[in-house]
Amino acid sequence: MILLMTTAPPSNAPWFHGKRLPPLGLMYVAASLERAGHEVHMLDNYLEQQSTEKIQQHVLKLQPSIVGITCGSATYKKCVETAKAIKQMIPNCKIIVGGWHASYMPDSLLETHEIDYVVMGEGENAITELAAFIMKEDYVGASTVSGVACRSSLGVIKNEPKFVDMDKLPFPARHLLPLEKYDRNIEFLKAKPADVMSISRGCVFSCGFCETKKLWGNINRQFSPQRVMAEVTDLVTRYGTKGIYFINDNFTMHKNQTSEFCDLLIKSKIDLEWVCDTRVDLVNQEILNKMASAGCKTIWFGIESGSQKVLNHINRHITITQIEEATQLCRKAGIQVACSFMLGMPSETKEDLMASYRFADKLNADWCQFNVFIAYPDSPLWREMLETGKYTQLDDFLYSYKTDEFDYNELMRIQKQFFKDYHRAPKRIIKRAKREGILNFAKRQLRLTKTNNAGMA
Predict the structure, then answer these.
(1) Taking the CB of residue 360, how many other CB atoms lie within 10 A of it?
(2) Is the bond preceding residue 193 a cis peptide, omega within 30 degrees?
(3) Is residue 135 part of a domain?
């Protein structure tokens, strides 16, 4: 039996994601293992937040041969702690760690003796092949699997990852998780219940804050429109889904495929609302009109900065003019706009921060989020910060930009002030009240006041 799990979030960390969403990547791995004939259990401890003792009781009851743990840089310590706790109870259990941090910094995980294998890159094929060797106790074979890193008598072995054929992936194993415990609602949609879906991997762009290529590769690969439509239909029929958030960064990267999916959705007559993420330079009026006809209600754009100087420095390859034009095209198509800005990126000054706020105010998006920039390990901006020494170290691997004008604490203060100023503007209060209804709007504001939420409005 194989147990797949996430770790609890770091205690009181400001980057804890309070939104309760199921771990899609791990569900794809679970589905692939099930298809290979394994009995699979899942524990989303990011959601459940069980104590170490409870996890030990859980594994003692299940007696898994393999435990797979997904690890981000923010959860590195929790991952190591969990691996040690499991090995203490079941010494012969093999522990495999995958996810973002495993792909960025596999050596840091293999320093922990209790972690037997690290999966770099896409995990579905790698962990399935690795599990087959482990079950046969063929550890020489296990050390040869593509995408796997492990210790050997000669040092650390790291095998180059291979990317999967997207259409050959099974649907995520949603049936292995208690969906009723998750937030099946999306801020940008009125339809409920709403779920998240992934349709692509890999990115052709080279933004300085991102290092997804180590996980997904530098080619954007998508499910075929027919495969996307099949999963949409499965969600609607099996889980009663009324809304979907397509969470990938570049939904409209291949406009012909986007258009074909929209045609299939329109032809199906499924009553579905949806939202997606994309770049401002990947939309035009024709594709936006088609998306609106197919039920797209909102598009999320990563704006990042209102300073062209900063956009150039982070290698974003977009202009202020393109951003303004894209939001105007969305409104013309009847699609709402959500956008996000990052505060405190290398090269930024306080004047650049204010330029971002002024630009956000000018765009007047339906939703706007301000995030304090935290550098991803091994990304270009992360390396730049280490080279210049201009950073505040937040934990083992996460860093915030620091200058004579601001540090991490000051950026957190600015973020809260921007959020407050932006969302308390009368024109946006009126807009939100109309969108949500007066009663719902009042209830939501009460909840935000109680939780002192400084994130999304």
Answers:
(1) 21
(2) yes
(3) yes
Residue 153 lies in a domain: yes
Look up the domain containing 208 and give its range: 184-423
Give 54-63's long-range contacts (Cβ < 8 A, gap of 24+). 55/5, 55/82, 55/85, 55/86, 56/85, 56/86, 56/88, 56/89, 58/3, 59/3, 59/86, 59/89, 59/90, 59/93, 60/89, 60/90, 62/1, 62/3, 63/1, 63/90
Shared domain check, 278 and 152: no
The alpha carbon torsion through 113, 115, 116, 117 (nearest 10 deg) reads -130
Same domain, yes or no: 358 and 414: yes
| 432 domain residue, yes or no | no
**pLDDT confidence of residue 457:** 28
What is the rounded radius of gyration, in angstroms, for the C-alpha atoms of the chain? 22
Note whether residue 355 is domain-resident: yes
The DSSP line for 172-186 is P-GGGS-GGGS----
Q: Quick check: 212 pLDDT over 60?
A: yes
Token pair, residue 17, equals: 């994601």
Residues 107 and 201 in one domain: no
CATH number of the structural domain spanning residue 284? 3.20.20.70
57-85 per-residue burial string, b: 16 or more CB within 10 A, e: under 16: ebbeebebbbbbbbbbbbbbebbbbbbeb
Whether residues 282 and 138 fall in one domain: no
Q: How many domains does the chain have?
A: 2
Q: Are residues 70 and 194 in the same domain?
A: no
Question: What pLDDT does residue 427 have?
Answer: 85
Whole-structure pTM value: 0.92
Give Cα 362 distance to the centre of its chain: 28
117-140 pLDDT per residue, tens: 999 999 999 999 999 999 999 999
The DSSP line for 277-315 is: EE-GGG--HHHHHHHHHTTEEEEEEEEE-S-HHHHHHTT
Where are any strands of DSSP class E within 16-99?
A: 40-44, 66-70, 94-98
Per-residue model confidence (pLDDT) at position 257: 97
Does the structure show a pLDDT above 70 at 275? yes
Q: How confident is the model at residue 455 (pLDDT cuts 50, 70, 90)?
A: very low
CA gap 79, 215 in Å, rounded: 18
Number of CB atoms found within 10 A of residue 334's CB: 12
Asked if 226 and 121 sit in the same domain, the reply is no
